[in-house]
Amino acid sequence: MIDSKTREELKQKLLEEKKRIEENISKTEISKKGTDREYETAFPEIERDQEENADEMEMYESNLAIDESMKLELEKIDEALSRMEKGTYGICSNCQKEIPLERLRAYPQADTCLDCQK
Ligand SMILES: [Zn+2]
After folding, report:
1. pTM, to two decimals
2. What is the CA(100)–ligand 1 centre distance, in A?
3. Count of domains in the chain?
């Protein structure tokens, strides 16, 4: 089992990572057209003049991809934090074995062991 000191340390890591990702997400969202618009509403506007906006579209798509992966990470972090609350943190969600501490230190939001991740 993970002792409470280590768990606290990992929790801090998760919270820091969460903050970092949230800051990054808001940056890419500001760089997109309109500051508070959803993707769905911003999309047709970009499509209207396709050739001129080809570059912009590429940027938009890569921003989207970055946003998506960051949001996924955020979800994982939130899940890891809630597993900490429930006391199931550090257990592989697939094989139920303990996730090695080295892996958790390197990637605190991990919910599977390396074997199961493959
Ligand atoms: Zn496993």
Report:
1. 0.72
2. 10
3. 1
